[in-house]
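Bit of a strange request maybe. I'm writing a small parser for structure token strings and I need a real example to test against, not something I typed by hand. Could someone generate the tokens for this chain?
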Amino acid sequence: MNIATWPCPLPTGRTSEELVVQFDHTRSHRLLVVPALFDEANKLRRMTVEVMRRLDLSGIDCFLPDLPGTNESLAPLAEQTLESWRASAEAAARHFDATHVLSLRGGALVAPPHMPGWQYAPQTGGKILRALLRARTIASREAGREETIDALQQLGRSDGVELAGWEFGPELFHQLETAEIRKSPKQAVIEQSHLGGAGLWLRAEPDEDPEQADALAAIIAVALDGKSDGAE
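Reply from user aminoacidic:
Good idea to test on real output. This should exercise your parser:
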């Protein structure tokens, strides 16, 4: 495993140097990993990398790029949109010569739908937002402030809003409210029940589960060993 950078194109025509965690030995199977979004990305980061480690041992190259405004990116999140992330994911697929894609949770909202691969426990934008909105109202209540989800939604649509430390611009907020999973006949859905146990995004703090990582990696490795794509 090594951490490198990749040139992510921006809507302005310029590029942003973003980080990528990669296992690259120029093998035939090359998996683009599109991570979960926002707070769920933090909770699933360890598991995501552990799945990549297991796939590397199975002879599969893996690439986990930062999208602008996420993880270690210096690009402002408030300037991002679902369209810009989709363009970034497409660019990453080309840059790394990816043959397949694995999206996790909200990553399915921006992963290239034309690529063969998998969607792990895909989640709609509206449900992601509602979880973040609830978390903010609870934190506000504990701090002695009263905020309502309705008021925060109005603010998010007009001016943008901070949720769990993430600065949402109004365009991204509005898009997420109605964003549905990008279903693809080329991508199999891996439900949490296929892995066993509860999803790590439900835990209060980032955590890991080796058995779940084993199960997710095995589903992908077995499919790539015997099929040309991940669809079932």
